[in-house]
Design a protein that fits this description.
Layout (H helix, E strand, L loop, with lengths): L5 H7 L4 E7 L2 E6 L4 E4 L7 E2 L15 E3 L2 E2 L1
Antiparallel strand pairs: 1-2, 2-3, 3-4, 5-6
Length: 71
């Protein structure tokens, strides 16, 4: 779409977002300071993954290999 949903803006906590990928209804977005957001409903809602150990990393790309594995 042309705009981010309010859940992405809220969950990103003012971090820049750089990449997004989807497999069917499952999506993932990555950005500054290890920000990783995940959706299970075609991008209508996103939640931040807090167990990602990438603090202070800029994540510029992401690729979903399966619905549960991303690189």
């Amino acid at each position: 779409g042309n705009t981010w949903s309010s859940s992405v803006i809220t969950e990103a906590n003012n971090q820049s977002l750089y990449a997004i990928d989807f497999i069917d209804e499952t999506g993932i977005i990555v950005g500054d300071n290890g920000t990783v957001l995940r959706s299970f409903d075609f991008g209508l809602n996103f939640v931040k993954l807090n167990d990602v150990d990438l603090l202070n990393e800029k994540l510029f790309c992401v690729k979903l290999e399966t619905k549960t594995r991303a690189y």
